[in-house]
Amino acid sequence: MKILSRWVKRSxxxxxxxxxxxxxxxxxxxxYDDICMRCNLCVSTCPSHKVIxxxxxxxxxxxxxxxxxxxxxxxxxxxxxxxxxxGSCKISCPFSLDIPEIVYLARSLLALEGEAPEDLVKxxxxxxxxxxxxxxxxxxxxKIISETSKIASEEKPRELYVPGPLDISLYEDVFINNCELLxxxxxxxxxxxxxxxxxxxxxxxxxxxxxxxKILNNVLREAEKMNIKKIIIGDxxxxxxxxxxxxRFFPDLIYKPSYNIEFVSIYELFMRSxxxxxxxxxxxxxxxxxxxxxxxxxxxxxxLFEKPNKPLNNGLYTxxxxxxxxxxxxxxxxxxxxxxxxxxxxxxxRQLIRSSEDIKMITSPCIKCLTAFLTASLYIGYEYExxxxxxxxxxxxxNV
Length: 400
What we know:
Elements: H1 2-9, H2 14-35, H3 41-45, H4 47-51, H5 57-69, H6 74-81, H7 88-92, H8 99-112, H9 118-130, H10 138-148, E1 159-162, H11 165-169, H12 172-185, E2 189-190, H13 200-205, H14 209-225, E3 230-233, H15 237-249, E4 262-265, H16 266-274, E5 283-285, H17 289-294, H18 327-330, H19 335-353, E6 361-364, H20 367-380, E7 385-388, H21 389-398
Parallel strand pairs: 1-2, 1-3, 3-4, 5-6, 6-7
Helix pairs in contact: 2-5, 2-8, 5-6, 5-8, 12-16, 12-21, 19-20
């Protein structure tokens, strides 16, 4: 009960977010109207447009404009909440107009006003009650953290490992394997039941920045309390996007520790210690689009699975996995989201399979991407393995 009270006490008024988002959305739309040439390059690269021709970035901007005016309809909500937020429209735009941010701001305004799709609204209530994206009970979190803390370093920790929400809720084996990887690196790290995610799922995919910021601030407070100066995270696209968007839109609302805290990828840490031991050329890796398009990061681990002299399959101009923007969360309750996710993930999976004749396995550091590919493999009859990146890396290290 004390935990719930602390959670509620630290909340920030939704009205603060609504006013901020309205102002930002107006600014972004004015910039778009002044610069856009209507060349339609954004339309041709949009993954959802490849599946449903009426869905495209320009129509979503029109919907965002109606949201700002309060003149939106049900169709506008569907358009905005089926956007993958993958950033392909921004990459293809000659002026790099940030349409995903316009869509995100409009979605957030709708969600804060109680106009999000019904299935997401139900998740919001659970998230607010339990303090995590999927409303996982404190008892389950405490049990998982208690078990994995036995793997952690026995020395005074310097790093805090914060997993993704799917690692805790659905893929505990990935969480455990990541902990095993950290153990192999021989660094001084730990885990905490007060820091089980960064808030990307609720802050980005479900478009509730107020709830996402509560989770992120809770992690920062916990790190400061433990005197941690480095937070280790997985490569969840939503989490990286949330770190960027929260600093861009709400910098004054983020908790400021008394010292600087660095965020670092667990896989980049791995590369510093073990990259020379990995020699897999039969694996195709899908890099989450948020890494390259939104965060602008070039992941060194991509080179572990590419043939010499072959261009990196880095996600910059490749399709999204189909699970972004909350589609993976809504697919069980919304037929439109299910159709988009399944067809886009099938397109991307075929793209990965065709990248080489030697491919016998598909991998990704992002669990949402893998979930999409596992579903797609049933549709297209893909017979090879689809494994999390942590599983592959851990097997390679154990064989050294």
